Amino acid sequence: MPSISGSDVKLVVIACEAGMGSSVMVANQLAKQLKPLGIAVKHSPVNQLESMGADLILCHRGLVGRARQTVPEKVVVAFDMFLGDPAIASVVAAIQSGGTISHE
Amino acid sequence: MLNLLAEAGIHFGATAFSKREAVALCGAQFVEFGATSQEYADAMWEREQIASSYLGNSVAMPHGTDESRKYVNFGQIVFIRFATPFIWDDEEVKLCIGIAAQGDEHVEIIGNLAEALLDDEKFEILLSTKDKSQVLEILNPTSV
């Protein structure tokens, strides 16, 4: 199972089906927290993940299977809520502290 | 319509009894404005079958699939508030923000929406105001 150290994360990509709605909302929130740390946050449709060059991917639980199939070598973290999800908060904490991030 | 979100796309007191009706209302607006074709409106329902666009706080954000972006003639956002809440999966929905986008033109407005959902005062205004310009001030301040 892939894992990555928070200190190696330079680009986080939020994926959703269309890359139009929920991923935009989550990316916007996350960018506010990660930009000051020099980390880029982008959003993308799941089926374009391969070309994004992400170090770490976040996506809604319902799409996690597809995302992991698309980029099996990358860490894909699932979240359930578009606003204030604890999984996203722990990713931010791991990036800040250099902790390890893996699938769950 | 050049502006992504304008007064014409803001509705208070709409009626829907189901998620399907609410999504169809958003889609019908896009078609009426000429922002999308009916194919996009249909794809919005298809998108709901893949994953619910319910956001939390009694707000849903229906939009099409990646595939259906080709049916978008120009980007458009609609704000549809319902007179009576209805059930969306297991949640109660009072407000739908419908999105039709070709690229990233709508990102700023969605960011403003996220902020408003986390801000009690702004959220209360979105749920209760009868003044469309207040909605624009919160979601699309550069247009006011």
How would you describe what is shown here?
The complex is a heterodimer of chains A (104) and B (144). The longest helix of chain A is centred in the N-terminal third of the chain and has 13 residues, at 22-34. Chain A has 104 residues and is of the alpha/beta class. Chain A has helices at residues 22-34, 64-70, 86-97, and strands at residues 3-5, 11-16, 40-45, 56-60, 75-79, 100-102. Chain A has three helices and six strands. By secondary structure, chain B is of the alpha/beta class. Chain B has a single domain (7-143), classed as Mannitol-specific EII, Chain A (3-Layer(aba) Sandwich), CATH 3.40.930. Chain B contains five helices and five strands; from the N terminus they run E-H-H-E-E-E-E-H-H-H. Chain B has a five-stranded mixed β-sheet. Chain B is globular. Chain B starts with 9 loop residues before the first strand and ends in a 5-residue tail after the last helix. The mean pLDDT of chain B is 94. The interface between A and B is medium-sized, with 21 and 26 residues.
